[in-house]
Amino acid sequence: MNNGKLVRKVHRFLPKKFAYKVAVIEEVNDIKSMRLDKLMGSLRTFEMDLEDEDISSRKRDNRRRTTPLHRCVTVEKMIGASHKCQSLNHLALLVAGLLLLLPTRTISVIDKDSSSIISRFQEYLRINTAQPNPSYYEAADFINSQAKSLSLDYQVLEFAKGKPLLLLKWAGKNPALPSILLNSHTDVVPAEHHKWNHPPFEAHLDPSSGHIYARGSQDMKCVGLQYLEAIRKLQASGYRPLRTVYLSFVPDEEIGGHDGVEKFADSDIFKNMNVGIVLDEGLASPTENYRVFYGERSPWWLVIKATGAPGHGAKLYDNTAMENLLKSIESIRRFRASQFDLIKSGLKAEGEVTSVNMVFLKAGTPSPTGFVMNLQPSEAQAGFDIRVPPTADAASLERRIVEEWAPVSRNMTFEFKQRASLYDKFGKPLITASDSSNPWWGLLEKAIKDANGKLGTPEIFPAATDSRYFRELGLPAIGFSPMANTPILLHDHNEFLNKDEYLRGIGIYESIIKAYASYAEPTKDEASREEL
């Protein structure tokens, strides 16, 4: 039997709702001698699409796909459900035909598709968007080209000159419903090139390990492209979203986001988007469980200044500027140690404590060769990066600063270079609910599980992201980057992401985006019944 006859026979016996296109291989060696059970035993991992709502086993096998078809069930499940087809012979013929076809032509299609996906990721990574001089317009051109290939609406916004913000739109069937916003930033932190094994903007793919080395591979160009690749796959499947999906590629996150998301979130453009949920960046996970974040620590950048009478370097006297500052530093050190002990003992996670780290010291009288060594300065300063969780008692911390760290009695003053709020505009803590009260959280958990992912315990992000600007508006925002079994290397030398983990993350986002974009809020009557 030649290929054409085989395919025609498969389609003739196949019910219309299963009549998918089948690729034809060039040769089939004596089909009559090939036993179906042997084929199934060796090729059981191959899967095909099955959209029959009547089949008793309707659970989807959402593992990373081995075929271009999706929402899959295994061949084994199809045999188990054969009573729904015309006969076992008909279904067996279908299975035999597909098993003969899949191992050759289909695999090459998969490899080619994956290669294209990785190539696009590498192209994005090679655009040097490192602060302080990011190539924003080059990145914008690349993102716009991807938007065009997906027929997405897009616009370039500039809330600050030279800092384009890309806004893409996948229109939903019901634009009246609150929309989905998938946020990512285009800038990255600088890299010390000489400390990398591969140039940080070469996007080198190690053939033995599969690691892609590049600045931004984890933070967070991976996520931005995964959004787009997931939409590409959803479109290829014929899926149309119920809700409108927006994608924002924003500037300046690495330097505070003041000319990026802060202005974007405060704009009329954003208000008119009617956003219901925001997805933003998370962190890599060294374990098999993905990390997910429902809040983040707010940055308080504190500068303490001590003053005192200048004097000869050989003289001993009280309340010098340096002595007063050292007392404050010691008090801060003790507080830092108490917080660190909570982490070391396992009582709290990193994001649940207040961290304090000294980032600069400034004192002394400069000279052409360094500093004047026989003069005690009249002024000394120290800077501290404080990260405050949304669960902290802000008033208590403020009292500690005033009374212990910078008391007036020791000729101390202080100022905040930055002091982010712990509360939204409604006076509530900047936390997104991570329980059944938040339907978006439940949808996320189920979508990840359906895609064969594992989710860890919800966390507070230890640093700051653009999510805070959305939470300040009272919007739910979830931090999530699908990187399991991956060391945390953001801002580090030799930052990398494995290509297989990147590809797997696309499938995870495909599941999440579909779940979110398909969500129809229950009516009041349905909500009342659920409460009962």
TrEMBL record:
<dbReference type="Pfam" id="PF01546">
    <property type="entry name" value="Peptidase_M20"/>
</dbReference>
<feature type="binding site">
    <location>
        <position position="254"/>
    </location>
    <ligand>
        <name>Zn(2+) 2</name>
    </ligand>
</feature>
<comment type="similarity">
    <text>Belongs to the peptidase M20A family.</text>
</comment>
<dbReference type="InterPro" id="IPR011650">
    <property type="entry name" value="Peptidase_M20_dimer"/>
</dbReference>
<dbReference type="GO" id="GO:0004046">
    <property type="term" value="F:aminoacylase activity"/>
</dbReference>
<protein>
    <recommendedName>
        <fullName>N-acyl-aliphatic-L-amino acid amidohydrolase</fullName>
        <ecNumber>3.5.1.14</ecNumber>
    </recommendedName>
</protein>
<feature type="domain" description="Peptidase M20 dimerisation">
    <location>
        <begin position="294"/>
        <end position="404"/>
    </location>
</feature>
<dbReference type="InterPro" id="IPR052083">
    <property type="entry name" value="Aminoacylase-1_M20A"/>
</dbReference>
<dbReference type="Pfam" id="PF07687">
    <property type="entry name" value="M20_dimer"/>
</dbReference>
<feature type="binding site">
    <location>
        <position position="281"/>
    </location>
    <ligand>
        <name>Zn(2+) 1</name>
    </ligand>
</feature>
<feature type="binding site">
    <location>
        <position position="491"/>
    </location>
    <ligand>
        <name>Zn(2+) 2</name>
    </ligand>
</feature>
<keyword id="KW-0963">Cytoplasm</keyword>
<keyword id="KW-0378">Hydrolase</keyword>
<feature type="active site" description="Proton acceptor">
    <location>
        <position position="253"/>
    </location>
</feature>
<dbReference type="InterPro" id="IPR002933">
    <property type="entry name" value="Peptidase_M20"/>
</dbReference>
<dbReference type="GO" id="GO:0005737">
    <property type="term" value="C:cytoplasm"/>
</dbReference>
<feature type="active site">
    <location>
        <position position="187"/>
    </location>
</feature>
<dbReference type="InterPro" id="IPR010159">
    <property type="entry name" value="N-acyl_aa_amidohydrolase"/>
</dbReference>
<keyword id="KW-0862">Zinc</keyword>
<keyword id="KW-0479">Metal-binding</keyword>
<feature type="binding site">
    <location>
        <position position="219"/>
    </location>
    <ligand>
        <name>Zn(2+) 2</name>
    </ligand>
</feature>
<feature type="binding site">
    <location>
        <position position="185"/>
    </location>
    <ligand>
        <name>Zn(2+) 1</name>
    </ligand>
</feature>
<feature type="binding site">
    <location>
        <position position="219"/>
    </location>
    <ligand>
        <name>Zn(2+) 1</name>
    </ligand>
</feature>
<dbReference type="InterPro" id="IPR001261">
    <property type="entry name" value="ArgE/DapE_CS"/>
</dbReference>
<dbReference type="GO" id="GO:0046872">
    <property type="term" value="F:metal ion binding"/>
</dbReference>
<dbReference type="InterPro" id="IPR036264">
    <property type="entry name" value="Bact_exopeptidase_dim_dom"/>
</dbReference>
<dbReference type="GO" id="GO:0006520">
    <property type="term" value="P:amino acid metabolic process"/>
</dbReference>
